[in-house]
């Protein structure tokens, strides 16, 4: 019998994986998902679910809701992607990753099944999650869309609540080249009579969401219009949200963009309470204050050390980088040093143009096939006035930045989820 490591390596190699190869692994349409759903006996029908789509903020929103639900006494599944270090990060119950033995048993039993099609990596792992959640007799699962919404494998579910965090230009080659087109794909998760929360909208995306909600008779709420908190005060490694539905709430997630995610989560909690979920004020406070330890969330304005201050963040498109760049400029430092790499299907120039020109740059590339060569990122950076040196790996770039820093500098690592993954795996704790 194959070992766990052998099975995981085979899973990566045999099944097209978007994380590694990009658009070649994307299989639009639900035909495969519906076939897999029948094969596995419709496991998602055995538990309630919350479905979350959006360009940015899906991960933070998913983890916050999962933490709060678990603190409220619900046995809670959480399905997210991509993972940073361990494949099993994608599938958790009450913050605990799916056991290796369960992954091994699933792959041993089903990877060689006589499917009339070749499922993608994401299609197969989605049903690994659903099958595991059903076997664990969970109460509710928080399900994060992989890509888009309308044609995403996860869209076979009928949730208690749909959430769309926001829309910005990303994955344009698959979802559309303008905001309304991308919004229509994300709005595909809106189901008949199922309430939907929109975290952030523009006039052009709001029209898309309103039209889709009307056609489905789905109640729709916009978090930005709800006055979910009176004020957000920056505190050490987080935010204090004043006068929420649970009183004053401290959130440990410190990114500037978390203020938007918090409004989305608090609006979702309002609806879940109306739908019959018992969510206490204490659970809300506990979930916000300890989401990283409760769920294992990493890479969201994560301060991994001080003296110098070292921060990593998985924000990787213009929608996310606008907040990161603003917060980097506001973070006290003697010298800002930025370790950056990106994948080749992003708006590289758009992201680079947002970065501060007075930083020292360490251009690098992650260990995935989609990674843009460090030299090419440096060339684009130079066009926007960024100065720095290229490095063959994230570890080399980070160690060079760290070695050049004094105690008052700030080192930021980001530009790609995969850069952060390499950083956490290769540089932290070693």
Can you walk me through this structure?
The protein is an alpha/beta fold. The protein folds into two domains: 4-295, 3-Layer(aba) Sandwich (UDP-N-acetylmuramoyl-L-alanine:D-glutamate ligase), CATH 3.40.1190; 302-426, Mur ligase, C-terminal domain (Protein-Tyrosine Phosphatase, Chain A, Alpha-Beta Complex). It is 40% helix and 17% strand. The chain has 17 helices and 17 strands. The chain has helices at residues 4-14, 18-21, 31-39, 58-71, 100-110, 121-135, 172-175, 179-186, 203-216, 258-274, 281-289, 291-295, 318-330, 348-352, 374-383, 394-404, 417-426; strands at 48-53, 76-79, 91-93, 96-97, 140-144, 161-164, 196-198, 220-222, 231-235, 238-244, 247-251, 302-305, 309-312, 336-340, 360-363, 387-390, 410-414. Strands 4-3-2-5-1-6-7-8 form an eight-stranded mixed β-sheet, sandwiched between helices. Strands 12-13-17-14-15-16 form a six-stranded mixed β-sheet. Strands 9-10-11 form a three-stranded antiparallel β-sheet. Strand 15, helix 15 and strand 16 (387-390) form a beta-alpha-beta unit. The longest helix is centred in the middle third of the chain and has 17 residues, at 258-274.
Mean pLDDT across all amino acids: 91
- For the biggest β-sheet, the strand order reads 4-3-2-5-1-6-7-8
Gross morphology is globular
Detail the poorly predicted runs.
18-25
Class computed from helices, strands and strand pairing: alpha/beta
Task: Describe the largest sheet.
Answer: 8 strands, mixed
Q: Give the strand content.
A: 15-25%
Number of strands: 17
Give the number of domains: 2
Let me know the CATH homologous superfamily of the largest domain.
Mur-like, catalytic domain
Helical element count? 17
Radius of gyration: 21 Å
Fraction of residues in helix: 25-40%
What's the CATH architecture name of the largest domain? Answer: 3-Layer(aba) Sandwich
